[in-house]
Design a protein that fits this description.
Blueprint lengths: L6 H8 L3 H9 L18 H14 L7 H13 L2 H33 L13 H8 L3 H9 L18 H15 L4 H12 L6 H6 L14 H36 L1
Helix pairs in contact: 1-2, 3-4, 3-11, 4-5, 5-8, 5-11
Pfam families: MerR, MerR_1
Protein name: MerR family transcriptional regulator
Organism: Phototrophicus methaneseepsis
């Protein structure tokens, strides 16, 4: 009995409320927990490490598909360590794909900032034609204008917005950054710096909210978040390795005592 852990022991070790331990058990994130004759849960070191995996994997934010995370935790609890490890690497792949997109968007931005023309449109376009040209909606273009990401000139006679190669090139930068996960606030912060003539350190501007900014989403520090998520994905893999080793050790012990 001395080798067993109580619910409160697990909660204290992981740093959660005892109800969280019970909740994770009910979700199938822990393997079957035996009970004492009096009905108390009898946790083992394996349960502790399963709880550690669940807590590590389920800490917000999630990059990629959350279901992959849930499935790998449940596979580990069911003893299917091979599938748990496979899903952990699938999660790592998803995070790395997101990080690759984010880094490629930065390269696109830096090319533009260095003066590379990103559009060769010869004539001015109206908002509808520009939306079609870029594959975005008219509402998106209006929102980017209202958000301060771009100041579109207007025809002096009709007062309609007119988009030239310069504006369309800037819109391409905005679009790829948004598609790659950067927030409107992060892009606005970077473009304000660019518009002052400061074309260096745009990467840092995208990833560093000002002291007077309220960070509402992880996308305001997207590059940092992706780096942290890749490190956490590696931690998940290491934790599954701990569970594999515990399972192997338990099998050896069982074989020796039979």
């Amino acid at each position: 009995m001395a080798n067993y852990l109580k619910t409160s022991d697990i909660a204290k070790e992981i740093g959660v409320h005892v109800n969280t331990v019970r909740l994770y058990e009910s979700y199938g994130f822990l393997s079957s927990v035996p009970r004492s004759p009096s009905g108390y849960r009898l946790f083992t070191q394996l349960h502790l490490e399963q709880m550690r995996l669940a807590r590590l994997a389920l800490t917000w934010p999630y990059i990629g598909k959350k279901q992959v995370i849930v499935d790998l935790i449940q596979c580990a609890a069911d003893g299917d360590m091979g599938m748990a490890m496979e899903l952990a690497y699938e999660h790592l792949i998803n995070v790395r794909i997101e990080r690759t997109h984010a880094e490629a968007a930065i390269e696109f931005l830096e090319r533009w900032a260095q003066g590379q023309m990103l559009d060769t449109t010869q004539h001015s376009l109206n908002i509808g034609a520009t939306a079609q040209h870029l594959g975005v909606s008219v509402d998106q273009l209006r929102n980017w204008d209202r958000s301060g990401l771009i100041d579109v000139p207007r025809d002096p006679t009709t007062h309609y917005r007119i988009y030239r190669a310069t504006e369309i090139g800037r819109l391409r930068v905005i679009r790829i950054l948004r598609q790659s996960g950067y927030s409107v606030m992060a892009i606005l912060r970077m473009l304000r710096q660019f518009d002052t003539g400061e074309k260096a350190h745009l990467r840092e501007a995208l990833d560093t909210p000002g002291d007077n900014e309220y960070i509402e989403t992880i996308a305001d520090r997207w590059l940092t978040t992706l780096k942290e998520q890749e490190e956490r994905a590696q931690e998940i893999i290491r934790q599954i390795t701990v569970l594999i080793n515990l399972t192997i050790d338990a099998s050896h012990y069982s074989a020796e005592t039979d």
